[in-house]
């Protein structure tokens, strides 16, 4: 081949590469627009399904004035003030209570700390008979029973920890109406596994003494929710067996899909729905870049706590793994912060001890995995720090929402680094929409422009509200410099495709090394257009591989780009 021929072909190839790059750029832009449109369409679809459901259930769309007046108004007000010690209702509480007392089934979506408990506890006290409350966690139940007992309300629980004596008392109260019992808490397992309990409940109902049924943390019914509990699936039996007993289902968060799902599963299609805003105006949301050096991350967290909370105000630090959680707690202690770890691998007594020490302010910080979750009722948690990102927007909303339940200003700080994405993606890979949910929160973390609060509104399909400078984006919106990293991204994708085509495996760090070598090799950044791996084939293995490649690409592109 002559020199001039080589040069000519080189020019042609370069021109073609430029052409391909242009096309890729256009395609990526189009893909971005399509993603946005897809999410808009999904929201519209959910809204359509919702209005269809409402049209089918004519009664739930009937506008009724749940504000009153009702015949029980003064008795309810008296109980609220003199038994519960609450001077006025919060948003929706009165309406929910009235709907329940009118005998209707009710679905309540109310943010953490909004005051859901009063919505079923007050009607339970006001109505004759016994109210059944299904709640997912022993600790949650214990807290509630303790609180009610302190108010002088006869509340009991029937769980594995109930003494024989109390069990006898409860069964007598259910069967014969003897003794004073107003509110009975059980876990969902009791409903699905104890025939004896169900038969006593049947007798109670038969005698007209079952006043209402409350399903707490109702999102656990839906496998689309963030805390699915298989035993919640069987709770539909309650409405089937006791159709005329009003049921109230309560949760802090439920997307439209979860709401539809749980209404179906609990057989309360004609329920009245009360949806309060997801907005927690007292929470300040911020995302910080996480160093790849773990010591630096702990240094920063310790500094944040010591500087912002010198009076040992309470906080939570969420970690990804049990090991990490023990290590971070130890390192915080070494930096002078009183911290204890909490995870599912610990002995129940040790776990309970840490929880109690933290609840009574003897421990400032609890460093936990996701298992430190539902049932945390501490109202004065001033900060929730995520040492690693959560697996979805919903989970993050729930976990960060444990801050500031007393309504006072509190902070939610999330440490994000792209390198944390693959370890989360391997955990959520087999969950319904697991990767999709993970990528939503990755977008939340990587966003340099969108108000954090508005991201929650969009996620829960709620109209936007003012943030009032209560997130890092709105408070410190500095100049965002745009850098075009598409060439890096293309190179990375081509590397991943090569790896996939040759059936190799690679960690994130190996990938970064490969990327650096490749960049050195070629001296400039071009896409290897000729070595395209075939991603076709509808078999599961192929799909799984493709999704792995996508998930790696998402983390590593950002890593190299940053
Ligand atoms: N109307 C009210 N006025 C003042 N305080 C209230 C009112 N209603 C409830 N509270 C208080 O607010 C706090 C939170 O209430 P509650 O525990 O019922 O919240 P929740 O909605 O169940 O939250 P979570 O989902 O986090 O469990 C409690 O201390 C409760 O006594």
UniProtKB/TrEMBL annotation:
Principal EC category: isomerase
UniProt keyword Amino-acid biosynthesis present: no
GO molecular function: 3'-5' DNA helicase activity; ATP binding; DNA binding; four-way junction helicase activity; hydrolase activity; metal ion binding
Domain Helicase C-terminal: 297-446
Similarity comment text for this entry: Belongs to the helicase family. RecQ subfamily.
Gene3D superfamilies reported for this sequence: P-loop containing nucleotide triphosphate hydrolases (3.40.50.300)
Compartments it resides in: Nucleus
Pfam families assigned: DEAD (PF00270), Helicase_C (PF00271), RecQ_Zn_bind (PF16124)
Protein name: ATP-dependent DNA helicase
